[in-house]
Recover the amino acids of this structure.
């Protein structure tokens, strides 16, 4: 099954690269948002030695992973279901797990490239310092858990998308809302009402953004988080829980065609 999964992943990557519009939008949009926020807010920030631009550079990594995993996966599966790709694959020896792993490999490659671009912009444009080795270790498990959780949720939510042409509109609504209440677009997150922070704490994006801020920002910045600390243990637990929840939802909601509803 490993070779079939890798082969399917290779096919998914090639198909994605042939669509220049998707390539440009997926890679450049988060970086353009980072440049926009960084230009608007500039160096204004309460913490000495840290600019708002650097905070956004760290937080936007979470946004990039969410849009790549959740939106790209959800829309891609809806399209494959609508145009009959899934139905045709069902009649081949390709196991469902190999198909899904292939999609996961696509998201992983895209997420790595997008994260590299955002970090590059943060370092070159906004002088965001690169972390030490221990922080890169945290970055690794945080990145993997974030990609897996968002991808699985994208697979699960694709089941409610009836038409692929509506996928972007449907999937981007929760994405945009969660950015604002999870401390990605608004920071310090303590500026938000406490009940909104509580709502955001149930979803992965708040913990993803907080974790990436830990990786790239000085330790003193933890005082601006909702709990006044980085809460890395809780971050791992929440993201791990969402990986399990996403897997369960995938296994219970996945269907090969519209007739399987």
């Amino acid at each position: 099954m490993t070779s079939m999964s890798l082969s399917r992943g290779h096919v998914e990557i090639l198909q994605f690269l042939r669509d220049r519009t998707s390539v440009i939008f997926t890679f450049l949009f988060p970086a353009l948002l980072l440049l926009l926020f960084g230009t608007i807010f500039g160096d204004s920030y309460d913490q000495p030695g840290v600019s708002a631009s650097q905070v956004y550079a760290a937080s936007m990594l979470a946004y990039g992973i969410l849009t790549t995993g959740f939106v790209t996966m959800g829309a891609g599966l809806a399209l494959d279901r609508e145009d009959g790709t899934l139905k045709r694959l069902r009649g081949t020896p390709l196991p469902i797990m190999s198909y899904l792993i292939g999609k996961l490999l696509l998201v992983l490659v895209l997420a790595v490239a997008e994260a590299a671009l955002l970090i590059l912009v943060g370092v070159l444009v906004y002088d965001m310092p690169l972390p030490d080795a221990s922080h890169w270790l945290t970055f690794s498990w945080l990145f993997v858990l974030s990609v897996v959780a968002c991808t699985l949720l994208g697979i699960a939510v694709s089941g409610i998308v009836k038409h692929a042409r509506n996928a972007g509109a449907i999937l981007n609504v929760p994405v945009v809302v969660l950015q604002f209440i999870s401390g990605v677009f608004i920071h310090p997150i303590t500026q938000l009402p406490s009940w909104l922070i509580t709502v955001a704490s149930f979803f992965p994006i708040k913990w993803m953004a907080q974790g990436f801020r830990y990786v790239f920002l000085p330790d003193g910045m933890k005082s601006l988080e909702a709990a006044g600390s980085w809460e890395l243990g809780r971050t791992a637990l929440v993201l791990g829980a969402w990986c399990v929840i996403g897997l369960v939802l995938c296994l219970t909601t996945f269907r090969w065609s519209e007739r399987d509803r």
